[in-house]
């Protein structure tokens, strides 16, 4: 049985609506292969797909938000923020809080989405990423 690692988000977290990626890797250090990164997905799809993949395998899946930063200046600002250890906004608050939460969290991802459901999620993500509201 594998392991699924993700963030526990407070209700109404803005991070919930970001695109999410899945990184699948070896559960133990004895295996030597490069992790697979896939996505972006909507969070419920990412959780369900990751759970389906690791359910019967000795794999680890990390499900995390993807920050849609539009230019190099925004990326540099996030890098500096990460280096400083400070948080500067709602999404960063949510992410930083998870790193210090000692209690285990259990999620119920649900059934894996169909290919059509995932493609519809891709379309919704693309619409979010290309809207003027971002």
Automatic annotation (TrEMBL):
It comes from Winogradskya consettensis. This is Uncharacterized protein. It comes from the Bacteria. Residues 86-117 are annotated as: Disordered.
